[in-house]
Amino acid sequence: MKSIFSKLVTSFSLFLLFSCNTTAHIPVPGEKTVQKNNISNEYYTIADAYFDLGKYDKACTYYKLAMKNKSLYWSSYYKLGKSYVNSKNWEQAEKVFVDLLKRDSENISLKMSLAYISAMNNNLVKSEELYSQMWETNPDNADILSNYINVLIAAGKTEKAKELSIELKEKFKDNKYISDFEKYFTEEQEKQQKEESSNENSSSE
User: Fold this and answer.
1) How far is residue 132's CA from residue 113's CA, in Å, rounded to a whole number?
2) Scanning 20, 75, 120, 163, which has the fewest C-beta atoms within 10 Å of its C-beta?
3) Residues of the chain by 3-state class (helix, strand, coil), percent to 5
Protein backbone atom coordinates (compact mmCIF):
# COMPACT_ATOMS: atom_id res chain seq x y z
CA MET A 1 0.00 0.00 0.00
CA LYS A 2 2.83 2.36 0.88
CA SER A 3 4.57 1.86 -2.45
CA ILE A 4 1.35 2.53 -4.38
CA PHE A 5 0.87 5.80 -2.47
CA SER A 6 4.46 6.82 -3.22
CA LYS A 7 3.89 6.15 -6.91
CA LEU A 8 0.75 8.29 -6.90
CA VAL A 9 2.59 11.18 -5.24
CA THR A 10 5.44 10.87 -7.72
CA SER A 11 3.05 10.75 -10.66
CA PHE A 12 1.19 13.83 -9.44
CA SER A 13 4.47 15.71 -8.96
CA LEU A 14 5.52 14.82 -12.49
CA PHE A 15 2.14 16.02 -13.77
CA LEU A 16 2.60 19.41 -12.09
CA LEU A 17 6.14 19.72 -13.38
CA PHE A 18 5.08 18.79 -16.89
CA SER A 19 2.13 21.20 -16.77
CA CYS A 20 4.33 24.09 -15.74
CA ASN A 21 6.60 23.48 -18.70
CA THR A 22 3.72 23.61 -21.20
CA THR A 23 1.22 26.30 -22.20
CA ALA A 24 -1.29 24.91 -19.70
CA HIS A 25 -1.92 27.34 -16.84
CA ILE A 26 -3.12 26.55 -13.34
CA PRO A 27 -5.18 29.48 -12.05
CA VAL A 28 -3.70 31.34 -9.10
CA PRO A 29 -6.24 32.58 -6.53
CA GLY A 30 -6.86 36.29 -7.08
CA GLU A 31 -4.83 36.38 -10.28
CA LYS A 32 -7.66 37.75 -12.43
CA THR A 33 -8.27 40.51 -9.93
CA VAL A 34 -4.59 41.47 -9.96
CA GLN A 35 -4.53 41.51 -13.76
CA LYS A 36 -7.70 43.60 -13.88
CA ASN A 37 -6.25 46.06 -11.37
CA ASN A 38 -3.02 46.31 -13.34
CA ILE A 39 -4.94 47.08 -16.54
CA SER A 40 -7.02 49.71 -14.73
CA ASN A 41 -3.87 51.31 -13.35
CA GLU A 42 -2.46 51.43 -16.87
CA TYR A 43 -5.65 53.09 -18.11
CA TYR A 44 -5.36 55.67 -15.33
CA THR A 45 -1.72 56.36 -16.18
CA ILE A 46 -2.54 56.74 -19.88
CA ALA A 47 -5.43 59.08 -18.99
CA ASP A 48 -3.12 61.25 -16.88
CA ALA A 49 -0.63 61.42 -19.74
CA TYR A 50 -3.31 62.59 -22.17
CA PHE A 51 -4.58 65.07 -19.56
CA ASP A 52 -1.10 66.58 -19.18
CA LEU A 53 -0.86 66.89 -22.96
CA GLY A 54 -4.17 68.74 -23.09
CA LYS A 55 -5.87 65.95 -25.02
CA TYR A 56 -8.92 65.89 -22.81
CA ASP A 57 -11.18 63.81 -25.07
CA LYS A 58 -8.64 60.99 -24.99
CA ALA A 59 -8.19 61.45 -21.25
CA CYS A 60 -11.95 61.12 -20.71
CA THR A 61 -11.98 57.81 -22.61
CA TYR A 62 -9.29 56.27 -20.42
CA TYR A 63 -10.59 57.70 -17.13
CA LYS A 64 -13.91 56.00 -17.91
CA LEU A 65 -12.08 52.71 -18.45
CA ALA A 66 -10.15 53.15 -15.19
CA MET A 67 -13.43 53.75 -13.35
CA LYS A 68 -14.28 50.07 -13.81
CA ASN A 69 -11.85 49.41 -10.96
CA LYS A 70 -13.67 50.23 -7.71
CA SER A 71 -10.47 51.37 -6.00
CA LEU A 72 -9.86 53.91 -8.77
CA TYR A 73 -13.48 54.91 -9.35
CA TRP A 74 -13.70 58.20 -7.47
CA SER A 75 -10.23 59.49 -8.33
CA SER A 76 -10.88 58.68 -11.99
CA TYR A 77 -14.33 60.29 -11.82
CA TYR A 78 -12.84 63.47 -10.34
CA LYS A 79 -10.20 63.60 -13.07
CA LEU A 80 -12.95 62.97 -15.62
CA GLY A 81 -14.75 66.03 -14.29
CA LYS A 82 -11.59 68.13 -14.54
CA SER A 83 -11.16 66.96 -18.13
CA TYR A 84 -14.67 68.13 -18.91
CA VAL A 85 -13.91 71.50 -17.31
CA ASN A 86 -10.70 71.97 -19.30
CA SER A 87 -12.46 71.04 -22.53
CA LYS A 88 -15.29 73.46 -21.59
CA ASN A 89 -17.89 70.70 -21.61
CA TRP A 90 -19.78 72.51 -18.87
CA GLU A 91 -22.90 70.34 -18.95
CA GLN A 92 -21.03 67.09 -18.32
CA ALA A 93 -18.68 68.78 -15.84
CA GLU A 94 -21.63 70.02 -13.80
CA LYS A 95 -23.11 66.50 -13.61
CA VAL A 96 -19.82 65.08 -12.35
CA PHE A 97 -19.29 67.73 -9.67
CA VAL A 98 -22.90 67.47 -8.48
CA ASP A 99 -22.23 63.77 -7.87
CA LEU A 100 -18.91 64.46 -6.16
CA LEU A 101 -20.49 67.03 -3.87
CA LYS A 102 -23.25 64.60 -2.90
CA ARG A 103 -20.52 62.28 -1.68
CA ASP A 104 -18.58 65.00 0.15
CA SER A 105 -21.08 67.76 0.86
CA GLU A 106 -18.76 69.87 3.05
CA ASN A 107 -15.85 70.00 0.64
CA ILE A 108 -15.31 73.71 -0.04
CA SER A 109 -13.08 73.06 -3.05
CA LEU A 110 -15.79 70.97 -4.73
CA LYS A 111 -18.40 73.62 -3.93
CA MET A 112 -16.29 76.36 -5.47
CA SER A 113 -15.68 74.23 -8.55
CA LEU A 114 -19.37 73.45 -8.95
CA ALA A 115 -20.36 77.10 -8.46
CA TYR A 116 -17.92 78.18 -11.15
CA ILE A 117 -18.97 75.38 -13.54
CA SER A 118 -22.66 76.16 -12.99
CA ALA A 119 -22.05 79.81 -13.86
CA MET A 120 -20.20 78.84 -17.03
CA ASN A 121 -23.08 76.51 -17.88
CA ASN A 122 -25.48 79.51 -17.55
CA ASN A 123 -27.00 77.98 -14.43
CA LEU A 124 -26.71 81.28 -12.55
CA VAL A 125 -29.40 80.42 -10.00
CA LYS A 126 -27.45 77.37 -8.82
CA SER A 127 -24.16 79.24 -8.89
CA GLU A 128 -25.53 82.18 -6.88
CA GLU A 129 -27.03 79.80 -4.33
CA LEU A 130 -23.72 78.02 -3.83
CA TYR A 131 -21.67 81.22 -3.52
CA SER A 132 -24.19 82.67 -1.10
CA GLN A 133 -23.98 79.58 1.12
CA MET A 134 -20.19 79.54 0.98
CA TRP A 135 -19.90 83.24 1.78
CA GLU A 136 -22.07 82.82 4.87
CA THR A 137 -19.84 80.05 6.22
CA ASN A 138 -16.51 81.41 4.92
CA PRO A 139 -16.58 85.20 5.49
CA ASP A 140 -12.78 85.44 5.28
CA ASN A 141 -12.45 84.00 1.81
CA ALA A 142 -11.93 86.80 -0.72
CA ASP A 143 -12.13 84.46 -3.72
CA ILE A 144 -15.62 83.33 -2.78
CA LEU A 145 -16.81 86.92 -2.38
CA SER A 146 -15.29 88.21 -5.64
CA ASN A 147 -16.74 85.27 -7.58
CA TYR A 148 -20.10 85.78 -5.89
CA ILE A 149 -20.09 89.42 -7.02
CA ASN A 150 -19.30 88.38 -10.59
CA VAL A 151 -22.23 85.95 -10.64
CA LEU A 152 -24.59 88.59 -9.25
CA ILE A 153 -23.48 90.99 -12.01
CA ALA A 154 -24.04 88.29 -14.63
CA ALA A 155 -27.50 87.66 -13.17
CA GLY A 156 -28.34 91.37 -13.41
CA LYS A 157 -28.46 91.86 -9.62
CA THR A 158 -26.37 95.02 -9.74
CA GLU A 159 -27.42 96.57 -6.42
CA LYS A 160 -26.63 93.45 -4.41
CA ALA A 161 -23.33 93.12 -6.26
CA LYS A 162 -22.50 96.75 -5.50
CA GLU A 163 -23.17 96.26 -1.78
CA LEU A 164 -20.88 93.25 -1.66
CA SER A 165 -18.16 95.04 -3.64
CA ILE A 166 -18.07 97.68 -0.91
CA GLU A 167 -17.71 94.90 1.66
CA LEU A 168 -14.92 93.39 -0.46
CA LYS A 169 -13.04 96.69 -0.42
CA GLU A 170 -13.49 97.08 3.34
CA LYS A 171 -12.35 93.57 4.23
CA PHE A 172 -9.81 92.86 1.51
CA LYS A 173 -8.17 96.17 0.53
CA ASP A 174 -5.56 94.56 -1.71
CA ASN A 175 -7.95 92.38 -3.70
CA LYS A 176 -7.11 92.62 -7.40
CA TYR A 177 -10.75 92.75 -8.51
CA ILE A 178 -11.74 95.87 -6.54
CA SER A 179 -10.71 98.31 -9.27
CA ASP A 180 -12.48 96.24 -11.93
CA PHE A 181 -15.71 96.26 -9.96
CA GLU A 182 -15.48 100.00 -9.30
CA LYS A 183 -14.89 100.67 -12.98
CA TYR A 184 -17.86 98.50 -13.93
CA PHE A 185 -20.26 100.19 -11.50
CA THR A 186 -19.08 103.66 -12.55
CA GLU A 187 -19.67 102.84 -16.22
CA GLU A 188 -23.08 101.37 -15.42
CA GLN A 189 -24.05 104.48 -13.49
CA GLU A 190 -22.95 106.77 -16.34
CA LYS A 191 -24.87 104.64 -18.83
CA GLN A 192 -27.98 104.82 -16.68
CA GLN A 193 -27.67 108.58 -16.34
CA LYS A 194 -27.39 108.97 -20.11
CA GLU A 195 -30.46 106.82 -20.65
CA GLU A 196 -32.43 108.85 -18.11
CA SER A 197 -31.30 112.09 -19.71
CA SER A 198 -32.22 110.81 -23.15
CA ASN A 199 -35.66 109.76 -21.92
CA GLU A 200 -36.25 113.15 -20.35
CA ASN A 201 -35.33 114.93 -23.57
CA SER A 202 -37.63 112.67 -25.56
CA SER A 203 -40.57 113.30 -23.26
CA SER A 204 -40.05 117.07 -23.28
CA GLU A 205 -40.19 117.12 -27.07
Assistant:
1) 14
2) 20
3) 80, 0, 20
